[in-house]
Amino acid sequence: MLASPNNDRLLGLLLCSRVSAGVGHVTQVCVLPEFQRQGGGERLLELCAASLLATGCTAVTLTVTERNASAVSLYRQLGYHVQHKFDAMLWEKRWH
Asked: Model-level pTM?
């Protein structure tokens, strides 16, 4: 969680899980639009990686759409690299 030091306002959060004995997976990174490109996403990813490393993980994975250019750029800057490309399926359920 990323909070403002001035008023504890939630600015961003990151969700992750362990997908195997040595691999953590970042499932979601969210930073409020007005606070993006100020280092918050980078800080969240660094804290997550450090926490996973401390629990024995040796790798961290994540997924991102190619169209999310700012996220792709951030992940590359932090040393992540493309391991696999795939077509994703979008499942939807609507209530009328």
From this structure: 0.81
